């Protein structure tokens, strides 16, 4: 069942129930009003009969019967009965529609006014006092006209209800279709969006309703997807280019060695060159795998408590072992004495990779291979600064050095593929932190990493 049909049926059902309740209430009120008005007329007839038959200015019963039968306001099948204190019949209008038991007469004396019904006949009994002598006057009749009017009104309400339900179905379907028309346009536009046409956007209405908000959010999602696809294409293109260069070099060296009759020493030199290229490929493949791992969802990364000061000390010792020419100065500025000052939730392996890359870059670009690392604890964050006095990164290059396979102009002549800083930034972002680079002739190059405690 379509959404348009469901909305139409739901709207019609709700309104039809409310309309039925209103019609039922109106019919019930009309019936109660008819009944109360007819009872008042019966009581007026009984009171009039008492004044004409039982007071000093009374008329004879024969004359009253004649007047009662020929008056214009006589009620259908009207009957008036009068009883005295001994329950003796004093007057009867001549018809025999009603018979009263002594219990009923005593009940009227006790309550002074009693109303009841027998089939369609409605009856009013009152206690009428004349010169301190009480009489019971009972007036009854059938409200033929009132019942017919209320019945006709009920039929009219029923017919009106059916007609209104039909109109509601048509109106509900029309307005539901009109309200859902933007969804149809959105669906057609979504069908036109493919991987090759991510630049298309959904139409955004000016009303600012929920559908417009949905279109705006979908367009923002498309913008993010388009940017992700663009980065992916750029990444694949750059990775292909970076992989092609060493592979071409390896292929060329091997082909030359096969065609030439080289001496063993020359062959060894060729093999060493090929081995160096293979090691470069291996480092690049490891960097790409690490970058892909760091780009995964945060929920897929195992997090635990990491002691950041100890981690930096371990990286310092590791550089002493694998890069003896590098000098790492580590300064820890602590405002407290507890180990909790340097604890954070994160992945120790990824953080080790991030800070290793920063220190490796600092040592690589520093003329004397000296790097200064400072760890500072703040109220809700920890800050790590990595400083070296290497060549200055141009201001227009600071924005691109964190992109994959992008290197600053100062990196010319230094080995690398432009993966390390991109990997470092992604790891820091994965830990809800941020990294900033500043470079000048006076201060050197400073990388500032801020992580939440």
Q: What topology emerges from the helices and strands here?
A:
Elements: H1 3-54, H2 61-70, E1 79-83, E2 89-92, H3 102-111, E3 113-118, E4 121-130, E5 133-142, H4 144-179, H5 181-192, H6 210-259, H7 264-294, E6 304-307, H8 308-322, E7 327-333, E8 343-346, H9 348-365, E9 370-377, E10 381-388, H10 420-430, E11 434-440, E12 444-452
Parallel strand pairs: 7-9
Antiparallel strand pairs: 1-2, 1-5, 3-4, 4-5, 6-8, 9-10, 10-12, 11-12
Helix pairs in contact: 1-4, 6-7, 7-10, 8-9, 9-10
Architecture overview:
The protein has 453 residues and is of the alpha+beta class. It has 3 domains: 3-162, PAS domain (Beta-Lactamase, 2-Layer Sandwich), CATH 3.30.450.20; 210-293, Orthogonal Bundle (Helix Hairpins); 300-452, Histidine kinase-like ATPase, C-terminal domain (Heat Shock Protein 90), CATH 3.30.565.10. The chain is built from 10 helices and 12 strands. The protein has a 5-stranded antiparallel β-sheet. Strands 7-9-10-12-11 form a 5-stranded mixed β-sheet. Strand 4 and strand 5 form a beta hairpin. Helix 8 (308-322) crosses helix 9. It is rod-shaped, with a radius of gyration of 51 Å. The two termini are 53 Å apart.
